[in-house]
Amino acid sequence: MYKLNETKMFADVTNNIAIIINSETGIYYAMNNCGSIVFQALLDGCSKQTIIENLKKIENCPSDIEQKLQSFIDDLLQKEIIAEGEQSSKNPVFDETVIKQDNFEMKVLEYADAQEMLLADPIHDVDESEGWQPVFKEDNKNDK
Amino acid sequence: MTNKPLISIMMPTYNNGKYIKQAIESIYAQNYDNIEIIVVDDGSTDNTKEILKQYKDIKYFYIEHKGIPFARNVALENSKGEYIAFCDSDDYWLPNKINKQMQYFKDHPNCEIVFTKYENFFENENLKTNRRAVYEKKVEDVFKQYLPSSIVKKSLFDKYGFFDENFNVSEDTEFLYRIFKKGIKVNNIIPEVLYKRRIHGKNVSLKYNTDAVKKYIATILRKGVLSK
Predict the structure, then answer these.
(1) Complex ipTM
(2) Measured between CB atoms, does A30 come within 8 Å of chain B?
(3) How many domains does chain B have?
(4) Per the domain annotation, does B1 fall within a domain?
């Protein structure tokens, strides 16, 4: 199955919108709601078959849903967003309303309009829990 | 009486008593006579206040510790300058930084923000080898927009808003991204190192930072995508 290609990608799925940042190129990707939900299922290690079975439970699921999913996965692989990973036993629960709103279409949109910003080094002295100018922690105490 | 435009120089600080004197002195060494220095002390518990007492003309605000975007906004609210400059309290400027940037504004009347190259320097020689390599590489690639190196027309903040206090980190990136999306040119960069950024092990960057910081950046991008 699949996992995030962590060597170069960072992904965040919030409010059913996935944002993926390629920290090597500064290109970033956004997905529509349906794509984001399915993408999260892929990151969770759900199998293609499980995803398809759960999509098919939704009313008006198109007959070509398998092709749609495969095309989506191929796109993610081609963009190096995901890589081969281990399968989990997770069973995805999809928000029917959101999937139907997007007509079962899974889209990945690519943006290059913030490359300069993303490849800049504008971040200050911060810590994920303490914010600005943190107290020193174990993993970088030798840096001080 | 000078006819040069007033520049408000904001210096948010938090427990940087060890470094702040060097930062302040580098500003006074600029030979530009129409400045105001606004230090917003974000709740320091070290000797910062004592050190700053010798500088009578500095506008000093001591506030409860609320983080860098809040501190920056306090400085903005109390600034009177037509231009805003930044000097973080652990960094310092090189001579003629202001003059060169103000000359750039003069030569480029449509410019609203101008950066300089900046250079990282190391607090001591004990940084781990891998981190040193990262930052040395960044010095080579340093021709980038780093907000503290910039001078900005205050009107940009009036028009597009102050720093977003929801971003405890990356608030400068968010501001740059916001004005960039509004069509403001952010590629005015003086190709000379005029800002020195101290690396003392607490700094992070996009590729090597924590997931929390990357999540903030993703939030900024999501905001932009939704507004497209």
Answers:
(1) 0.77
(2) yes
(3) 1
(4) no
Task: Provide the residue-wise pLDDT of chain A in tens; the chain has 144 residues.
Answer: 899 999 889 999 999 999 999 887 889 999 999 999 999 999 999 999 999 999 999 999 999 999 999 999 999 999 999 999 888 888 898 999 999 999 999 999 999 877 756 665 433 433 434 433 333 333 333 332
- Give CA angle at B173 (B170, B175), nearest 5°: 110
Q: Does A6 touch chain B (CB under 8 A)?
A: no
CATH code of the domain in which B140 resides = 3.90.550.10
CA A81 to CA A3: how far, in whole Å? 9
Are A35 and A18 in contact by the 8 Å Cβ rule? The answer is yes
Inter-chain contact B202–A118, Cβ cutoff 8 Å? Answer: no
CB within 8 Å: B221 and A30: yes
Q: List Cβ neighbours of B196 (8 Å cut-off, separation of 6 or more).
A: B91, B92, B93, B94, B118, B119, B120, B121
Q: Which residues of A touch B219 (CB under 8 A)?
A: 12, 14
Q: Measured between CB atoms, which of B16, B173, B222 is closest to A117?
A: B173
Contact between chains at A131 and B169 (C-beta distance less than 8 A)? yes
Query: For residue A86, how far is the Cα from the chain centroid?
Result: 16
CB contact under 8 A, B68 and A131: yes
Closest partner residue to B218 (CB to CB) among A21, A126, A131 is A21
